[in-house]
Amino acid sequence: MATDRVMVITGGSRGIGASTALLAAKAGYRVVVNYASNAQAAEDIVGQIEALGSKAIAVKGDVASEADIIALFEAADSFGQLSALINNAGVILHPMPVVDMTAERIEKSFRINVLGSYLCAREAIKRMARSRGGAGGAIINLTSAAAKLGSPKENVDYAGTKGAIDTFTVGLAKEVAMEGIRVCAVRPGIIDTEIHASGGQPDRLQRVVPTLTMQRAGTAEEVAKAIMWLASDDAAYSTGAILDVSGGRAILP
Ligand code: NAP
C-alpha cells in the first residue's frame, strides 16, 4: 500500500480522472486533483476522498498553460514525494471535417491534449528521475481508440492528438526507463462520461452503442482500474505498453 506517495491526476475532477482519483485514494495515494474550471466538481472528489480517510487537494490549472503546469507541480511538492502522474486531461471539440477547422481550433486540441501531457511529464520526470535524486515512478497517458480509427468527418484533430500520445508513450518509456520511471498508456473506446456532451455530441452514446462490439459503452471506473494497475508495482515490468480498454473497439485483428 502506497501510503505516503503522491499521484497527480490532470483532469481529476470528472469522468475517468475522478474515478481514478477515488481508486488511488483507496490504494493509499495522496491525490492531487487538477481541474480546469469546475471547482465544485473538484471539491466534491476531494470531499469523497477525505471521507475515506485519505488525503487530496484540488488544484486549478489549465494544462494548455506552461505556467499553470509548473504551479500544479509546485503544489504537489508541498504534498509529498511524487510517485505517479496520470496525464488524463483532454478535450474533444465540436465535430467538423478538417476542411472547416480553424488554426485556433486545431492548436487548442494539440495544446491541451499533447503539449499539456508533454509538459506535465517533463515536470514529473524532474521529480522522479533517479539521476536527479528522485525515487522513480510511473507516468500513465490517456490515448484513445480514435488514434487508430482517425475519426473522419468529426474529430480528426482529436484523433491526431491521441496518435501523438501513442508515439510519446513509446519514446518517453525508452528515454526514462533507466531513471526508474515507467511510461504506459490506456487506450479507451467509448466511455460513458461528459466528454461527448462537452464536445457537442450529447447523443453520441445512443448513436454509437449499437455499433460497438459489446453493445455498451465502458464506465469510467473500468478505465480507472486499468490506469491503477499500470501505475502499480504489479506492472513493474511493463513500460511503453498501451492497454486497450475499448470493449473490442479498434483492436488489431
Ligand atoms: P471528461 O469527463 O470531459 O473530464 C475531463 C476532465 O479534464 C475534467 O476534470 C476537466 O476539468 C479536465 N480538463 C479539461 N480541459 C482541461 C484543461 N485544459 N486543463 C486541465 N484540466 C482540464 O473527460 P473523460 O471522458 O473522463 O476523458 C479523460 C481522458 O480520457 C481524456 O484524455 C480523453 O481524451 C480520454 N478518452 C476518453 C474517452 C471517452 O469516451 N470518455 C475515450 C477515449 C479517450 P473541468 O471539470 O474543470 O472542466
Automatic annotation (TrEMBL):
One annotated GO molecular function: oxidoreductase activity
Any one Pfam family match given in the protein's UniProt record, by short name: adh_short_C2
Keyword terms: Oxidoreductase
Signal peptide stretch: none
Domain of life: Bacteria
Assigned protein family: Belongs to the short-chain dehydrogenases/reductases (SDR) family.
Record-given protein name: SDR family oxidoreductase
Biological classification of the source: Bacteria, Pseudomonadati, Pseudomonadota, Alphaproteobacteria, Hyphomicrobiales
